[in-house]
Amino acid sequence: MADPTVAAGFARAFLEFAVAKGADRQTLIEQSCLRPACLSEPDNRIPLGTYLALLKAGIELCNEPALALLFGAEVSLSEISILGLMGHVTSAEEGLHQVNRYARLAIDGGEGDTAHRFEFEPEDGQVWIKFTSTLFANNPLLTESAFARCVCDGRKLVAATGGVTQWPSPKAIRFAHAEPSYRAEYDRIFGVPLEFSSSMNAMLFGEELLSVRMPQPNQYLSDLLTKRAEALLEKLENSKSTRGRVESLLIPILHTGQANVETIARKLALSRQTLFRKLKAEGVTFEQVLDELRHKLALEYLNGKNISVNETAYLLGFSDAAAFSRAFKRWTGSSPRTMKAVSSSGRGLR
């Protein structure tokens, strides 16, 4: 079963937010077992458990129990995720449906999570927007951060358009989790009637929400973002294949010398034979997956400015630089030092 993941942009943004609030960066990284290299691209994936550990570490180190709530209120979605795509639609309803489609790019619950994150439930001339994902039901820190971002980003949109866009504020909010000790921060940020220990996580709006018109979108930008989002969705689905799961387990242990089929089969709770069969069904072998992963990562590392050839050999689990050099020549026909020089000249690697 694929494990839940979150886009690295969220972790990177929260890390910077917590540091700005007084937390020590290295302590945050160590306590959450976060791999800084994963934060290089905001669309990378990190385990949801790591992100939750980061939130909890930030709360502890900043001595601020409302830190996740404040993070949602103060840091806009457009700063951390391609889901800022929702700003490039013609109506609020279209935006909400689009977020529904691409929500997994922010947080993916893995297998068993609900396919849709939001449901619209009309009630007496009003509409409840219900957050249906099990992730929200089971993680109050995620819920309060997401709700605060949703409400505060709407207010920022109104301010940014000089009031031309009349994004309505919610009339009431319900939370499935119990009332927190920092209830006063909830009241300050949301400013509407709140209900805790509810049967649902939901926000109540007037029906006019669904007819709100957004600023005329930039069609070129919208098309680019949609194409990028679709590619990321496809990549996310591929990562749930046996090959994708094997790769995700190999990456953090390549340098340990334990990147073998026995270790990976054990982590997947599979026998060696079952793992071999699953990979064969996808048209690959374990050795092929390992070799191609090393090739891909070698190009990424050598393209970077701060990782040397010797360090790359170590990170990929080669016994020495000579063994890495032989493999690299087999992959590319050139030596890693030559390719590193090409990268340093600004021409990059392929």
Q: What tags apply to this protein structure?
A:
Arc Repressor Mutant, subunit A, alpha+beta, 52% helix, 350 residues, single chain, H-NOX domain, three-stranded antiparallel β-sheet, 2 domains, elongated, five-stranded mixed β-sheet
Description:
- The protein is of the alpha+beta class and 350 residues long.
- It has two domains: 5-232, H-NOX domain; 241-344, Orthogonal Bundle (Arc Repressor Mutant, subunit A).
- The protein is built from 16 helices and eight strands.
- It has helices spanning 8-20, 25-32, 48-62, 67-74, 92-102, 134-138, 140-160, 183-190, 219-238, 242-250, 261-267, 272-281, 286-303, 309-315, 321-332, 336-344; strands at 5-7, 45-47, 107-108, 118-123, 126-131, 172-174, 194-195, 202-206.
- It has a five-stranded mixed sheet with strand order 4-5-8-6-7. A three-stranded antiparallel sheet has the order 2-1-3.
- α1 runs parallel beside α3, α2 packs across α3 (48-62) and α14 crosses α15 (321-332).
- The model has no long low-confidence stretch (mean pLDDT 85).
The third-level CATH topology of the largest domain is: H-NOX domain
CATH class of the largest domain: Alpha Beta
Q: How many structural domains in the coordinates?
A: 2
Spatial separation of the terminal alpha carbons: 33 Å
| Largest sheet data | 5 strands, mixed
**Roughly what is the average pLDDT, rounded to an integer?**
85
Measured as a percent range, the helix fraction is: 40-55%
- The tally of strands reads 8
Poorly predicted spans: none
Specify the structural class: alpha+beta
